[in-house]
Amino acid sequence: MGIIKASKLIFDYIRRDEEENIEEIKRAIDDVSLDIEAGQFIAILGHNGSGKSTFAKQLNAILLPTEGTVWIQGLDTSKEENLWEVRKKTGMVFQNPDNQIIGNIVEEDVGFGPENMGVPTEEIWRRVDESLKAVGMASYRLKSPNKLSGGQKQRVAIAGVMAMRPQCIVLDEPTAMLDPNGRKEVVKTVLELNKKEGITVLLITHYMEEVTDADRVIVMDEGKVVMDGTPKEIFSRVEELKSYRLDVPQVTELAYELQKGGVDLPDGILTLEELMENLIPKFAGHISNKEASENGGDHGN
Amino acid sequence: MGIKVEHLNYIYGNGTAFEQHALKDVNLEIKDGEFIGLIGHTGSGKSTLIQHLNGLIRGTSGAIYYNDKNIYSDGYNMQALRSQVGLVFQYPEHQLFEVDVFSDVCFGPKNQKLSKEEIETRAKEALTMVGLDESYYKRSPFDLSGGQKRRVAIAGVLAMRPEVLILDEPTAGLDPKGRDEILDQIERLHKEQKMTIILVSHSMEDIARYVDRILVMNQGEKVFDDTPKEVFKHYKELEAIGLAAPQITYVVHTLKERGIPIDSNITTIEEARDEILRLLSK
Fold it and tell me: For the whole model, what pTM was predicted?
C-alpha cells in the first residue's frame, strides 16, 4: 500500500430542504480506486466540477467517504481516532492566498500550525526557520503578509503546511489567482520540496504547463478517473484530453498538428527542446539558400 | 471618439508615509470598436488604470476623455459614464446576490431607472449574448457552475448596454473549455455588437489569439503599445518585466536562430503549423 490509497471511493453531496428531506443527491466521486506511492509528484487534471477538489478534501478528512475507504499511510480516514494523525500527515494549500493567511507577520503565520499541534516553542521556531528557508522566504520573516505578492503569499502558505511536517502536500489550484511569475515561483517551490525533501505532492491545476514535470498525471471526469499515466502518455492523447474539456501545452499541440499534417514526429512532445530536437532535422534538404536569404531579412509586412 | 488618456498620474496615499506612485504619466488612445489586451504582472498598475476609465478612481493629475469630453470637467455625468463603460471585475461571480439569474441581471438596468419592460428586454438580450437560454432564468445563481456564474455576472454588466466592456481576468480559475467559451463569447460581442473590448489577462496565449492591440504596463508606466506580433517580438524585454510571450513565439524564434527561414510574425498555433508545413513541403 502506498502513502495514499483509495478503494472504491464514492462521495455524494446531499442537499436537503428546510425539513431535512433530501432534495438532491449529486455524486461527486464515483468509484475511484487509486494507489499513490510515497515521494511521487502527482498532478490531477479535470474540468470545473469533475471531482478533483472533492477528492483532495478526502485526503485529509475534510470530507469523509459516502462509500469505500481512504487510507493515509494505512490509517482509515473515516475512523475518528485517526483524524489528528491523518491531518498531520496531509497538508492542504488552497487557491486563494488571502483566505489562508492569519498571522500579522510571516513567521507568526508559519508557526500557527505547529503551535496548534502543541509543539514546544523552541521546536516551533526551528520549524519556522526551516520551512521559510525551504520555500525561499526566509528574508521575509518579519514582514507583514499583506505586503507580499500572490506568489509569495502562496509560498508562505506552503511553509505553514511544511512546518507541520506532513508526509504529503495537496495543493488545490494554488496558482489560479497568480500572474506568470507567481505561478513559476510556486511550481518551482513545490517541485523542490518534492525532489529535495521527498514530500509526496498532489497538485491540482488547470495549467497544463505545470504538469509536464510530474511523475504521474491523473485525469478526472464526472467523478471518475479516466486517464492515468506519465505526462508523455497522457499528452500524446490530445483528442481524448479535449473531449474532457482539457487542453495540452502549445508545444504539444503544435507537434500534434504537424503530425496530422504528415510530419513524422514522436507522440507526446512536452517541451520546446524536444520539439526542436525532432523538428529541425526535418528541414534538411527543404530549405534552399534563396529562400533563406529572402526571408532572413525579416522586413515585417 | 473613444477613450483618450493624457498624462495620467495616480498616487495612492498621497502625502502619507505609504505614498505609492501607481500610474506614471500614462498616455493612450482607444478607438471605438477596438479589441485591446492589457497585460502586466501583479502590481503593474493595470487594475488601477481600468478603474480610472469608468471614473471609479480619480487621477491625481492628467485627463481622461470619453467621446471627446473630459470626464474630470465640472458637471460631467459620471453615472452615465459608468453604464457606458462597463467594468467586469475579477471573480465577478462573487458579486451575484439575487434569488434567481434573471433578477440578478436586471439589477443594473433597474438602477438606471428604466421601465420594467425595458429592463426585462435588456436582461433577456444580455443573457442571450452570453449564451444562457430561458431554462436558466429562474435558477439560483449559486447552483450554477463556475463558468456559468461568470457568464451571469458578465450579462449583468451587458444589460446596461455599455459601449466599452472592460474585463479584468475573466478566465481566472476556469478550465480550458470554460475559458474558450467565455473568450469566444467576448469576441462575438466585439464582432457583432461592435463593442470596444479591453481584456486584462495573464495568459499571453489568449491575448495572442484574440486582440488587435496590446498595452503592456510595468511599474505604473505604459511600456509597449502595439499589435501582438510586434509586442511579442520583444519577448526578452517582456521576460525582464515578469511576463512572457506565448510558447509559440519561442518555437518560432528558436527555429529562426537555427537558420530556418520561418516568418517571425507568427503568434498562434495555426499560423505556425501552416508555415512549418509550407516550408517542409518545398
Answer: 0.82
